[in-house]
Amino acid sequence: MYLSLFFIIGLDNTDINTAKKIYEIDTIMINASSGFAKIMLNNICGSTPLSFCLIASIFAIVSLIYLSHVNISVNAQTVFAQNIGSNPINSTLSVSGMATTKVKPDKIILSLGVETTNKTADEALSSNSKLMSKTLAALKAAGVRENETSTSSFSISPNYNYSQASRGILTGFTASNSVIIESNGINRTSKWIATALSAGANNINSIDFTLSDKKQKAITNSLITQSIDNAKEKARIAASALGLKVIGVKSINFIEFSPPTIPQQQSFLAKAAPTSPNAASTPIIPGEQEIAQNIDIVFILGKQ
To answer: Model confidence at 74, in pLDDT bands (50, 70, 90)?
Structure first.
């Protein structure tokens, strides 16, 4: 009976009724066994020597313990089988899903600047400011909006001549001012470069192509859906091979989408004669970007 009580405590709530029946059966069996043992002891010990009576008593006690143990073991196995049959298998399967696509960038990040050198800092700053103002005005006339342009760096530094071993001689000052253009007008990149060089810019620092926020969001949503479908298909195949099926999702982990930029290997220092804005522009081709989206999903498996 004590073993039955221990077994009942370990059961789930759904099996409590079955456990109560086990307890009742165990009680009946033990009472019956006890009654049988008493009858045997009364009949035998009443008319036999004491030594034989002791042997019969030990035999009756051992029989009582054995019958109770067998009864509890059989009933415990029955409830365990019922418990397994009624509850799903709490197994999980971790799967990674991936989706890729190739897209054309629709955003340009162009960095250009003006660099001037004069004998004094004031002269270098003044000439630089005039050329940069002229450059920005020309870019605005070419279609660059004010909210698409921002200053990225500015510096003014002295220049020394170190040809003499004794000391450096101050020869002048250099002022440098760079701006960044971030725009969706990707097809006008070549025109803007030519316009800036014609107006006085002499540094083209970098040309990068990327995705606009709107296009990035649309691609991200599409790739997330595709990567989830990819993970679900993998989980279905794996579960089927194991004789199971997918019955739910435990967790999902998104790997953040970060579109790469495509730098153009065209960084150069333009110090040639001013270029006419109507002159033939150098073709700037953005190409395509390969975008990938990964997702990790933990699926819950159950019986088919």
So the answer is: very low
d(CA 88, CA 171): 85
Domain chopping of the chain, boundaries? 2-87, 107-210+264-286
Q: Which CATH superfamily is domain 107-210+264-286 in?
A: Protein of unknown function (DUF541), domain 2 (3.30.70.2970)
- When mean pLDDT is compared over 3-17, 27-41, 137-151, the highest value belongs to 137-151
Tokens of 73: 């073991």
Say if residue 63's pLDDT is above 90. Answer: no
| pTM tops 0.70 | no
2: confidence class by pLDDT, cuts 50, 70, 90: very low
Q: Comparing C-alpha atoms, which of 290, 242, 228, 275 is closest to residue 89?
A: 242
Instruction: For 111-139, give the DSSP string.
Output: EEEEEEEESSHHHHHHHHHHHHHHHHHHH
**Which position has the token pair 């415990």?**
76
Backbone angles phi, psi at 117, to 5 degrees: -130, 130
